[in-house]
Amino acid sequence: MLLIFLILSNAIFSQNTIETIDATVKQYAEKDLFSGVVLVTENGKPVYETAFGMLDREQNIPMKTDTKLKIGSIVKDFTAVLILQLAEQNKLDLDDPMGKYLDMFPAEISQKVTIRQLLRHEAGFGDYLRDPLPRETMDSLTTVARIIDLFKNEPLLFEPGTDEQYSNSGYTVLGAIIEKVTGKSYFDAVEQHILQPLGMSETLFHWRKIAAQSTRPKWYMRSATGRIFPAEVDEWPSPSGGAYATVGDLFKFEHSLLRDNRLLSDRSKGIKAARFSAEPAEWQNLLNDPKYISGKAGGSPGNNSLVLSQPAKGYTVIVLANMDEPIAEVVGKQIFTILSGGEPEPVRLTVFEQMYQTWKAHGSDYLRQNFERILANYELMDPPDFVLNRVGYDLLFEDNVDAAIDIFTVNTQLFPQIANTWDSLGEAHMVKGNRKLAIENYRKSLALNPGNQNAAEMLQKLETED
After folding, report:
1. How confident is the model at residue 452, as a pLDDT?
2. Single pTM value for the model
3. Per-residue pLDDT for 5 more than 50?
4. Which residues make beta-bridge pairs with 298?
């Protein structure tokens, strides 16, 4: 079902532009590649707002333009704003070591890692969501402290400031610093210092409010074979992701960051735009620079989100989807291309389906040799090893275990230093009944990442079997 709300456009947003946007999004929806909500604004006013597909396929509940959907890692922007607000109030300095505020980490970590490095993903923390977590563990992660317990004793991946790695763990640490400085829970701090000032009443950060919704969205994944199925994995909000919002509320947040000072001063905006550098960008110059584009995205199994703005031209594109990433990013960037006067690209298979079709037609050796060439045609938010890992699990869940083992094996050959590739191969061999191979691969995973709780539990189970 398609719900469309078209708003009268002005001279810049011609009717032809709106029709092209609508036709493009409709193609993705009709091919069952997209389900969600799209909002396009110009100079602070909505010019196009649509809802496509189903909120709940099983109950036949349609998507609506005011549906609250997950915003993924866009939450990291909320966390960064709170940190910058505290810096403006002289309650912390971006170059303070995290140990000035937190005592739950070893001194060799807490005295070296700075707040600025956490903001820039340069602290050396890994990602607590990278390796599979048991369902009961995921369900227990309702506080910042519980999340930090997962990784507080793990060694850093590199010396702080010498490298960069996207880190959900690092932004969770920022959330703990916010709690310590404000004396409030992270979620209450967001509510008081961001949501309430902007009137964002349709944004849910607290897990109890999310659980209390009468109609919660369902999340869907499109498998590498083209099958649509519910995403079983869900997580509660944290300082790194997981909150729910409407496109309208996200626009309030984005518009404030671009056009007013209710949340941040121009200087803090310049710091944020310069990736939290000690030398802030000149904010007003950026607003008038047609090359400057503000972008943020997020996603987890069964959901994807994107916010793109070009301040000099006055428009913002927001896409929320209850289907797997990167579909919101694909749709949003297509819209951005149209707004920039370009032609949208033809609708194509997801990267997962393309990898599967390549393997099916040509085999594993060809896939391994051509993996990077195929990948170059897609923009990814996740690390490249996630692609074949996802393809393998799609096949495993469809009981095509031999094919899954083949795909997972290729992934270990491409990414032998990534613990999760061996973990996944171990699971596939366990399902197949190859006990020795399962143990061998889980051991390799655990050697690469001693903190891999899933591998440790599976090894204990396998090694105690008769």
Report:
1. 87
2. 0.84
3. no
4. 305
